[in-house]
Amino acid sequence: MTRIDARRIATARLDLVPLMVEHADEMAGVLSDPALHTFIGGAPDDPEALRARYRRMTAGSPDPAVSWCNWVVRLRDEERLTGTVQATVVPDGPGLVAEIAWVIGTPWQGRGIAVEAARGLVDWLAGRPTVRAVIAHVHPDHHASAAVATAAGLKPTDEWQDGEVKWQRAMGR
After folding, report:
1. Residues 73, 83 contacting (CB under 8 angstroms)
2. What are the structural domains, with CATH classification, of the chain?
3. pLDDT digits (tens, 9 = 90+) for 143-154
C-alpha cells in the first residue's frame, strides 16, 4: 500500500495546511470552547498539552501501514486558523479507507467552513487512486456534523461504533 502524506489543500476560501507543532498556540484559542467537547468528551487542551499532542500526531502512526493526515483550517480572508480536519488512512482489502473528522472553532461555526473544509478533504482523498472509501463517525444528536457529512457526500449506514453512526462514501473506482 502507498503511504499518504498530508499536502496543502486549497478551496474557495480556505487553505488546509498540514499540521505543525507551531500551530498549537493559535489552535489552543480556536479550540478553547468547552462546548466543542459536548459530543466527543474531554476538555480543551492548553497550549502546552496541545503542543505535546501535535508532536505525537506529526510524528505519525507507529504502524507504517497507517497514515495520519492532519490539517489546520486557515480562513484566507481573515488570515487565521479556524479549526482542523483529519484523515486516518488504513489498508482495507485491495485499497485504502480514510476515516475523517473535523472541528471548527465556535466563533466560525455557521459560516459553511466545516462543509467547505470537509468537501475539500474528501475531494483530495478522492484524487488518491488507492483510496476506495471515506468514513466518518457522527453522534446521532450532532445535527450540524450530520449536515457536514451529507454535504461531503457521505451517507449514514446501519453500523454504529462507540455510540456514533458510521457514515460512508465509496470513491467509485
Report:
1. yes
2. 9-170 (3.40.630.30)
3. 999 999 999 999
